[in-house]
From TrEMBL:
Residue ranges the UniProt entry marks as DNA-binding: 130-228
Domain annotation OmpR/PhoB-type: ranges: 130-228
InterPro entries, sorted: CheY-like_superfamily, OmpR/PhoB-type_DNA-bd, Sig_transdc_resp-reg_C-effctor, Sig_transdc_resp-reg_receiver, WalR-like, WH-like_DNA-bd_sf
Keywords, in A-Z order: DNA-binding, Phosphoprotein, Two-component regulatory system
Protein name: Winged helix-turn-helix domain-containing protein
Pfam families: Response_reg, Trans_reg_C
Keyword Cell division: no
């Protein structure tokens, strides 16, 4: 199953590490940040599956980040869990009103965060937790490593399989070449971004039903998206 990406933003380094261990134990790919400004820079090129934010971040705090996320089309659907200090419990209602999907009042057992993140994904993006992903007439089995379209098996190479799995997580979302490159080869890879175009072409050839079948859309100047299938 593809790694589900959680970004944790908290000013407390010790708490960040505790939360990271708990989430990694549950199979999440975790990125730790200490300031809201770092997050806003990262969101320009990559969206996580879940954000975990502290309401008491210095500078740009978690509540203000929620407000900003919910006003931008690209980020308005990113699930957010807000962490609220016990002495600022009033932030819980303010955070929910600002767009947080769930809130945890500190202190809390670290395992509770992992449970809430899973529940949030199960409710909002079930494709991220199931080994079977279905989008229209496309079915991808993460465990068996098989793809079917209209009940006929499609033969894909390993890179094209990973690419399709990533696109099927959020049908309709436009992914930049940078995001797709990161999903295929990780951060810091020296692969040219144009290699993404090559694998998109191979994937299209593998799953297309004909020349008029635009199952993967090219969005000029933005990237690629899995269209209606």
């Amino acid at each position: 199953m593809g790694a589900r990406v959680v970004v944790v933003i908290d000013g407390d380094e010790t708490l960040r590490e505790v939360l990271r261990f708990s989430l990694v134990d549950e199979g999440f790919d975790v990125t730790l940040l200490s300031a809201g400004s770092e997050l806003m820079e990262r969101l320009v090129s990559s969206l996580p599956d879940v954000l975990v934010l502290s309401s008491s971040l210095p500078g740009l705090n978690g509540i203000e980040i929620c407000r900003r996320l919910r006003t931008e089309p690209a980020t308005m659907r990113v699930p957010v869990v807000l962490l609220v200090p016990a002495e600022s419990e009033s932030d819980r209602l303010t955070g929910l009103a600002a767009g947080a999907d769930d809130c945890l009042v500190e202190p809390f057992p670290s395992v509770e965060l992992a449970i809430r993140v899973k529940n949030l994904l199960r409710r909002m993006h079930p494709n991220l937790l199931s080994h079977m992903i279905r989008v229209g007439d496309l079915t991808l089995d993460r465990e068996a490593h098989r793809v079917h379209r209209q009940k006929k098996e499609v033969r894909l190479g390993p890179t094209e399989f990973r690419l399709l799995e990533f696109l099927m997580r959020y049908p309709g979302r436009v992914y930049s070449r940078t995001e797709l490159k990161r999903s295929l080869w990780g951060d810091g890879a020296t692969v040219d971004e144009r290699a993404v175009d090559v694998h998109i072409g191979r994937l299209r050839k593998g799953i297309s039903l004909g020349k008029a079948d635009q199952v993967i859309r090219t969005v000029r100047g933005a990237g690629y998206a899995l269209g209606d299938v």
